[in-house]
Design a protein that fits this description.
The protein is α+β, with helices and mostly antiparallel strands and 265 residues long. The chain has a domain of 96 residues: CO dehydrogenase flavoprotein, C-terminal domain (Enolase-like, domain 1). Helix content is 33%, strand content 25%.
């Protein structure tokens, strides 16, 4: 349980305060809930930092401030529809008014609403280190290098306006956490696939995407690639057997890839 709350007034101040014993407090949907995954002695509130707000055009991308809520993203005309589709996966409007895009990225939940779409669209992050230096990293790199980047402050997220992304979410109800969320997308001429599999993996499926870029694959071909991925070690639970989950992932990827490649609507 947090013992101290610091109200940061600038991004530089917030980034400078971050250490292994602290956590950023954004919308609070995770930090303040019962049995939260956040375990920090100190919380750094970033809710009053103007430079983390706002949604604007930035060349061929849309730049979204890290403190933008799901509802603000849905209400903004600049935001691509594919990202709004991912925000709609959060069924509660109350939560959408609180939850922020930066906070959801930082949490890296394996039942994430947004990660598959951000991976599939090759979204980029503006990250600020303790000295106030800002660097750009793709979402995939952020996941891979998280131990190195975890104390950086997410300042903004940039998504390409013209990316083509299709997503699918599997959950018992709209309010339930998803057992599987999958996205396939084409940005800059490259096909990418992202997956959030609850209690299993949160990643881009590079081998599957590369194979699909080169040629059309059958469900069985995709299933073989999934079975070879050591990170996709599904477990038996109330949502089904490992075999069923791998099959579901394979057929979903095949369907979404066809959609973004223009083979289906």
């Amino acid at each position: 349980m947090a013992e101290k709350l610091v109200m940061a007034t600038s991004a530089v101040e917030a980034a400078g305060l971050k250490n292994s014993e602290s956590a950023f407090l954004a919308g609070g949907t995770e930090d303040n809930r019962l049995n939260s995954s956040v375990d920090a002695a100190n919380l750094i509130s970033i809710g009053r930092i103007p430079e983390l707000d706002g949604i604007s055009k930035d060349g061929e991308c849309i730049r979204i401030g890290a403190m933008s809520t799901f509802q603000e993203i849905l209400d903004n005309k600049l935001v691509p529809e594919y990202l709004k589709d991912a925000c709609r996966f959060m069924g509660s409007r109350t939560k959408r008014n609180m939850a922020t895009i930066g906070g959801n990225i930082a949490l890296r939940r394996t039942d994430s609403y947004l990660y598959p779409t951000l991976l599939a669209s090759h979204a980029m992050l503006d990250l600020m280190d303790a000295k106030g230096n800002v660097s750009k990293k793709c979402v995939c790199c952020y996941l891979k290098d998280y131990e190195e980047l975890k104390d950086n402050l997410i300042v903004a997220v940039s998504v390409p306006k013209e990316a083509k992304v299709a997503s699918k979410r599997y959950a018992n109800t709209v309010q339930s956490h998803a057992v599987l969320t999958v996205s396939a997308g084409i940005a800059d001429g490259k096909l990418r696939v992202g997956v959030a599999a609850k209690d299993t993996a949160l990643k881009g499926l590079c081998d599957v995407a590369t194979a699909l870029q080169e040629k059309d694959l059958s469900d069985a071909d995709i299933l073989k690639l999934i079975e070879a991925d050591k990170d996709l070690c599904f477990k038996q639970d109330i949502f089904g057997s490992p075999e069923y989950k791998r099959y579901l992932l394979a057929v979903t990827i095949a369907d979404l890839a066809r959609k973004v490649k223009g083979g289906a609507k």
